[in-house]
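Box 3.1. Reading complex inputs
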Amino acid sequence: MLSLSLKDVHKSFGPIEVIKSAELDIGPGEFIVFVGPSGCGKSTLLRMIAGLEAVTDGTIEIGGKDVTRLPPIERNVAMVFQSYALYPHMNVADNIAFGLKIAGMPKAQRLAKAREAAKVLQLEALLDRRPKELSGGQRQRVAIGRAIVKKPGIFLFDEPLSNLDAELRVQMRLELAKLHQDVAATMIYVTHDQIEAMTLADRIVVLRAGVIEQVGTPLELYHQPRNEFVAGFIGSPKMNFFGARVDRRTADQVLLKVGDFDGATVGVAADRSAAQPGDAVRVGVRPDGFVVSESGDIPCRIGLAERLGNVNYLYASTGTQQMCIETKDGSIAAGDVVRVSIDPQSAHIFSSSGDRI
Ligand code: ADP
Ligand code: MG
């Protein structure tokens, strides 16, 4: 269980800077998830930590030691990739123990370690099988087993579940959470799936175009996103955004005129925002921040109603603006016109530059 520090880490490929001054401190035993859209630099950052990609500028410390120029083998990390690349002619035990064989460990000892890892991963009954006799989830577990036997100070995972079907992903997600408890190691996990990020992480690192936008616990990012990008990225269905102008502040509310709502006035709790009268802003409302009621200020027409049983998502339009409304009311249907209001305790206000204010 080791700590990790990134200090002003940059990475360029030719003239293009893909990681721009990454600063990050990870404590021993933390489960950290890197999320962000495709191409934002998640894999590049992970590969630099692993030592598979050279750092252009800056310092990487693992366990307090500068490893910036050290090869992967001297960093005490193990990486699991999306494509698990098992050796087809070797059985599960030999695949798991392969790294130990390369390191020169005697056969009996390395097979004992493979059995130990197989136990954690519930692969004990499959040790004699070849990869082609395994399901996708079992193969991915073998790849994780290869990492476990190295007893690394830090596990690095790059989208390890992306090749699995939806049901298996959920199951493997639970197993990874359990693995983190069992092996008590520091883990850094890359995904573009924000549900995986929310459920696995102690802290999430949100990346956009090579910049760390925010680092925080899942609930910090959900409730206190630093900017519109994080607010829109975390949460499903996504937060809705509307253009507005601050009209005035009262003792308990910021009152805004929302252009997208035909100029209707909405209120946001005063302690949620420092926005000032006259400010041109954007209001962010999660689907569960709307209240459907006859006295609502905002009329909208339902384009589509998704009924999930426990909850319903209404895809509605105010004429100029699309939005997603969450409601328990399963009787509202496409074509209906309803009135909604905004819960003042849940809306966020963002400046024109995107920062939450
Ligand atoms: P992510 O994992 O978040 O999808 P990557 O870290 O793979 O993103 O890539 C970040 C950016 O760096 C992308 O624009 C990608 O095209 C670029 N990139 C990655 N590897 C190389 C490389 N070896 N040479 C040139 N550009 C690269
Ligand atoms: Mg990637």
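In summary: The chain is about 25% helix and 35% strand.
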